[in-house]
Amino acid sequence: MTIWNELAGLDFTLNTVDAAGVPTRSLQAGSGDEAVVFLHGTSGHLEAFARNIAAHAPYYRCHAIDMLGHGYTGKPDYAYEIPRYVEHLVNYLDAVGLDRAHLVGESLGGWVAAHLASELPGRVLSLQLLAAGGTVANPAVMERIKSSTTKAVQSDDIELTRARLHLLMHDPADATEELVEARHRIYHQPDFVANIHNLLSLQEMDIRQRNLLRPDRMAKIQAPTLVVWGHDNPFGDVPEAKKMAEDIRGAQLQLYPECGHWPQHEQAALYNPLSLAFLAKSSAQAKTPA
């Protein structure tokens, strides 16, 4: 199954949005009164949600974007720390006219979404943290992300890109050939190569420490929150997910067996109905008078 087969029969647009001067690749589909914005992980791109857009589009306006410095979005020359990502996301929301949205963030995307939810609660209808990063600083994990990504970017050998994607998945078959080729093409854009040190800046200990989602920040999150995690996540063990859910008032935790770092992709058949039920419940709560 390829990315485009996943989207077959779905009306969508793929275009570039000017987010306060940063050209931002955006896939938009669906209809409804509310919007869901999907945010990928480190060195990722909007195709991370190819198995989710069609399921959500009948009920919500869906936006999947390439985040700051990623994919085919602009790559300004500065370190991509969390406040920079949040600023870019807010600028995107403003550019497309979204005062509030449901945020679905995988890995780095969850880190950014949680930070935004803690800073600007009025912009976030609900929050989904899928194998989200940002609550710990594990040197071994940070080095694994940094070295595997750098090798894949600095070499034309597509096998290194394939290995980078296999690192994310419990089952290597989930790293489809089309997904490998799409990421390989992204990795070898001249501006991507030139800015890889900026993209990987959060893997430097001093930078990561000042950007962490600490318990006091997590306690500020008011939006209904769903934490989704795989038992075989190579970048974080289950206790990390449990602590994340404990630190956010009322958060729901869902664990999937035989699942790595992309639960929305690896376990799409289970995740999509879970997400839709959570979104519907969150929407109903938002409309209920206090």
TrEMBL record:
One of its GO terms (biological process) is acylglycerol catabolic process. The keyword Kinase does not apply. GO terms for molecular function: monoacylglycerol lipase activity. SUPFAM superfamilies: alpha/beta-Hydrolases. It comes from Rhodococcus wratislaviensis NBRC 100605. This is Putative hydrolase. GO terms for cellular component: membrane. Residues 35-266 form the AB hydrolase-1 domain. Keywords: Hydrolase. Coiled coil: none annotated. InterPro entries: AB_hydrolase_1, AB_hydrolase_fold, AB_hydrolase_sf.
